């Protein structure tokens, strides 16, 4: 029986007029068997897969888990103390169970949906009659998407079912594959992706290219402690790729600088008013309780009124202050009553509801400037802020960490990153002190860009050899103890989110999230659970 294409084409139809699609439908009902016959059809399919890396249209599927992962680190509180927190609380407070995962169920399901879709596309594109050059481009993009999904799954849940073929209902008997096997498939997909994209045009319009494949290879090599490979691929992107560091750090997350010179891959957004293609992060993590009276204009049109989830910790702010890192601090965090960095004239004292905000801070990287707000008739679902998924600065930091472990010049790379934000170079560092500085630079540079939880799980404390997260979280963790003894005027006066954040962390199980119980049940017990859940 023919399988009808479902929502995988939803985004594609935006790029193809209804009349064109109806005319094609004269062949009969659009099915997997008669699709993929033209380059346009293959491109539409690859575009949809790429868009599903963040699922900007459906914020609750992947964007919500993304901010929940941030909340499970030392960088962010849940933040919103005025609404139901049941979606975020299980993971962020380390109370998660297989039956109570909050929004962490969504990431598992969404990524496997995309993997199955990628497998379908790869199988059908391979047999498509289109020219080889176009076939390679769309297949290369699809391979990257599949690799990215598995990279997220293996970091979130550990060993997971691995498949690269189209599955039918009779094939749902897969067990979990070892972490090493999942990573091996990720690497194979990315290498094949880079090869297929070798001759594809490199355009900064959100399309996947070979440099994105090499950059993700650098990241997954780092995560596996394959230091030589991490150095090889990060160096390749730095020295051969068409990218450069933005001269102004704030410009990386600028609504008027989509796909800038530093961006290797961004989730694309649009403010088109008759489509729902905007970013969800500025709403989900925007300041809750803005009021027109707090803006110089006294105009309700300047108010965004976000939902207030994922608020920066004072511990993160202190990390910036300890380095006198003014530029990255103000580009990452806005404290209540301070001017919005870069928007000082129209928002000189950014104020919001402290009754609903745990920390009195919001994420500046997700901020929508007042001028952009005024240009929008519709805001929720229409905010034009692209979300960087991979950028060049990460490659410098990856090369620095790889150099540390292979005897190279790690200081040179972190000093390049520091120079961009007007910080003096570090000199004379070596051994554990140097490694901790590399870790710190990653935190300061990449805060709220989806890497902090993965980093503190994989980074090793140079004194104990144990994951860094174990020294931060748990009853005796430094981050937990800092909060319990904090005198921060915002965090300690709003205790509707408990001050003992991270105290429930258990290193015997919380280095990965549990497999959703429903997946185990649907497999008839073939899929097993992570230890101690």
TrEMBL record:
Start and end residues of each SusD-like N-terminal domain: 42-222
Localization (cell): Cell outer membrane
Keyword Membrane: yes
Principal subcellular localization: membrane
PROSITE patterns per record: PROKAR_LIPOPROTEIN
Classification via CDD domains: SusD (cd08977)
InterPro entries: SusD-like_N, SusD_RagB_dom, TPR-like_helical_dom_sf
Record key words, sorted: Cell outer membrane, Membrane, Signal
Entry similarity comment: Belongs to the SusD family.
Protein name stated in the entry: RagB/SusD family nutrient uptake outer membrane protein
């Amino acid at each position: 029986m023919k399988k009808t294409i479902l929502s995988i084409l939803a985004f594609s139809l935006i790029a193809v007029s209804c009349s064109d699609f109806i005319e094609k439908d004269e062949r009969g009902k659009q099915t997997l068997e008669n699709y993929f016959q033209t380059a346009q059809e293959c491109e539409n399919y690859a575009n949809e897969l790429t868009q599903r890396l963040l699922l900007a249209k459906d914020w609750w599927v992947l964007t919500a888990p993304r901010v929940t992962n941030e909340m499970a680190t030392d960088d962010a509180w849940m933040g919103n103390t005025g609404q139901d927190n049941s979606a975020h609380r299980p993971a962020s407070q380390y109370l998660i169970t297989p039956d109570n995962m909050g929004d962490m169920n969504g990431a598992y399901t969404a990524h496997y949906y995309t993997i199955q879709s990628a497998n379908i596309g790869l199988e059908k594109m391979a047999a498509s009659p289109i020219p080889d050059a176009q076939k390679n481009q769309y297949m290369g993009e699809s391979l990257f998407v599949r690799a990215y999904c598995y990279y997220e799954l293996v970091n979130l849940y550990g060993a997971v079912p691995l498949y690269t073929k189209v599955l039918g209902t009779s094939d749902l008997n897969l067990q979990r594959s070892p972490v090493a096997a999942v990573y091996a498939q990720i690497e194979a997909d990315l290498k094949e992706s880079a090869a297929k994209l070798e001759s594809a045009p490199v355009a900064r319009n959100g399309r996947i290219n070979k440099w994105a494949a090499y950059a993700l290879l650098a990241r997954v090599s780092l995560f596996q402690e394959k230091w030589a490979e991490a150095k090889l691929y990060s160096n390749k992107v730095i020295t051969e790729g068409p990218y450069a560091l933005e001269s102004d750090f704030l410009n990386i997350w600028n609504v008027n600088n989509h796909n800038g010179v530093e961006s290797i891959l961004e989730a694309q957004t649009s403010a088109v008013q008759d489509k729902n293609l905007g970013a969800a992060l500025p709403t989900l993590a925007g300041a809750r309780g803005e009021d027109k009276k707090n803006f110089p204009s006294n105009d309700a049109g300047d108010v965004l009124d976000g939902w207030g989830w994922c608020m920066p910790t004072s511990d993160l702010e202190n990390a910036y202050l300890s380095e006198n890192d003014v530029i990255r601090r103000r580009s990452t965090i806005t404290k209540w009553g301070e001017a919005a960095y870069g928007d000082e004239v129209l928002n000189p004292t950014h104020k919001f509801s402290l009754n609903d905000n745990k920390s009195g801070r919001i994420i500046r990287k997700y901020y929508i400037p007042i001028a952009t707000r005024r240009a929008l008739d519709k805001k929720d679902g229409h905010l034009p802020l692209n979300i960087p998924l991979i950028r060049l600065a990460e490659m410098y930091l990856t090369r620095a960490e790889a150099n540390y472990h292979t005897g190279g010049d790690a200081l040179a790379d972190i000093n390049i990153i520091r120079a961009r934000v007007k910080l003096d170079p570090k000199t004379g560092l070596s051994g554990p002190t140097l490694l901790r500085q590399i870790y710190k630079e990653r935190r300061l540079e990449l805060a709220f860009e989806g890497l902090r939880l993965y980093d503190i799980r994989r980074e090793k404390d140079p004194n104990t050899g144990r994951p860094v997260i174990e020294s931060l979280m748990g009853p005796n963790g430094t981050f937990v103890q800092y909060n319990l003894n904090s005198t921060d005027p915002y965090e300690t006066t709003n205790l509707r989110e408990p001050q003992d954040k991270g105290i429930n962390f258990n290193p015997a199980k919380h280095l990965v999230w549990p497999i959703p119980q429903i997946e185990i049940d649907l497999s008839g017990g073939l899929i097993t659970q992570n230890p101690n859940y």
